[in-house]
Design a protein that fits this description.
Elements (H helix, E strand, L loop, with lengths): L1 H21 L6 E7 L6 E9 L3 E9 L7 E8 L4 E12 L3 E6 L3 H4 L1 E9 L8 E8 L2
Antiparallel strand pairs: 1-2, 1-8, 2-3, 3-6, 4-5, 4-7, 7-8
Length: about 140
Amino acid sequence: MRRIFSVLGAVALCASMAGTALGRPHGDVTLRMHAQSGSGESGSATLTPLRGGRTRVVLDIKNENTTGDQPVHIHYGSCAHLNPVPRYPLKNVVLGHSNTIVDAPMSKLMSGHMAINVHESAAQLKKYVSCGDLRSM
């Protein structure tokens, strides 16, 4: 009986390790996006690690600008001290949603040195309306 449990335990361990090695890495992270500049635009960003060192970034923004698309980027820095030069462009927020695959591993994005920043519009890139710091939880 003890041998059966040992074999079953080994099989379960191998199966769980194979799922991680063969499938996408696990460990989605969801962070809050905070309104800036009195915009009222808050929400969430969910990062999902993918195979090949890529990361899916999904934004869901509430009270978004309904007059058009809003550019969004990952910048170096923090929401409080943002480098204005974007590092990774994301797909624009349209009707409160953006879904982008970034060619960077999640570990790099979550290093604590970057932030996701939503801009008012393409014409108003200097006006930031929502931001979320990327850091490990």
